[in-house]
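[09:14] KT: can someone run the structure on this one? pasting the chain below
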Amino acid sequence: MHSAETSPPVVSGSAGPADLAAQRQPAYLRQVCELLWPPPAVVTMHDGFRQPNTRGLPRHRARAPERPGVSAFALVPGLGRPPLLVPAEQRVAAAAVHHFSGQRSRVPRAATRVFSLLLATEVSDVVLRRWVQVDALASAQTIETYLADVLGQDLKISMYLGPPRANRKPVLQLLTPLGETIAFAKIGINPLTCRLVRTERAALDLLGRAGIAGISLPRVLHHNQWNGFEVLVLSVVPAWTRHRPLPRARLTAAMKAVAQVDDLDSEPLLGSAYLGRLRDRLANADRGPDRDALTWALDRLADRAGGTVLAYGAWHGDWAPWNMASTTRGLLVWDWERFTAGVPLGFDALHYRLQADLGPRHRNPLTAATASVRSAARLLAPFGVSTEQAQLTGILYLADLATRYLVDRQASAGAQNGAPGTWLIPAIIHELTRL
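[09:31] RB: done, structure tokens below
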């Protein structure tokens, strides 16, 4: 048994040094483009507002490439998110933005659909002022030629990079020249994102074989390595189709089905395989006050509640409102790269609640983390989890998430709320006093 001190170590309380390159969108965009269109291809970024003679700029509909090997893209303003890189052709650009809108809440989704209509008009020449052009030989090996060979047809690519975070990676929307979305591709470009891409492929294979009642998942169309990167091509989940309300009972049933995909096990926390894995993961984090405080908290938790028996199953790992859609075609759930088996039952429900509070509601992170534990008994009752088990599960969930952030170095990557010492760890230590 690990001994626990009587008082917790002091946590850092700060976000730590940030990776400036990860926070600057133009620099990161150029870096990613040069990875996906490697030399001898040349990536050029243009800003229309900086042209000395805007009358000399080609019109939007004329920006489409006129020779093989040349790709032109427009950078669509973010509409509350990081910008989207879309093909220069108006029709394809409008389709790319429209389909992207399906993964968002109602008001932003409506605004994005209106914006997609504007892209099909001359207004687009005023709105879209930033451009990326790629000049490559027709025979050059780029991500475009690779994916076209994989799918056996001509492609246009739209790219979403996401906000600064350690697991940031290019997500490509693959469209036909007429603007029909036919697949999505995730590209792992560093050790962490490569591992996550492999995890998602394995998760989708497992879930596809099992068949999860009430959930539609993307299918794996292709997975391989290209230029040292992991490439995962997935079928389309039509998140842009008409949405419908999602009753809480239906969401809970879907989460329970995922938890039971590989059966449930029960054992006391102390000595459990789960706690051992969590401690091993934490040991891989950088040394510092946050790791020390979280280690102390886990030892204290084992001393106080180690005899509590918990049920363990699988979880999606990032089941948030923006990674799912309730549509007329059913419940669609994507982004399975954090899927893990053998965690305390109910983690998905707790994560969904916390992310919903941190997202559109913009709740104070520390308040939201504490509230997720305080509401655990109510949230986990439908899973058959007792009040005592729920409180312990809530604390373990926060510890698991804090461990993830520390191991991935989310704070140094510039992720929002990426420093667990400012909110997750204080909430854990505070809730320990209530056990």
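[09:33] KT: thanks! The longest helix spans residues 387-408.
[09:34] RB: yep, looked fine to me
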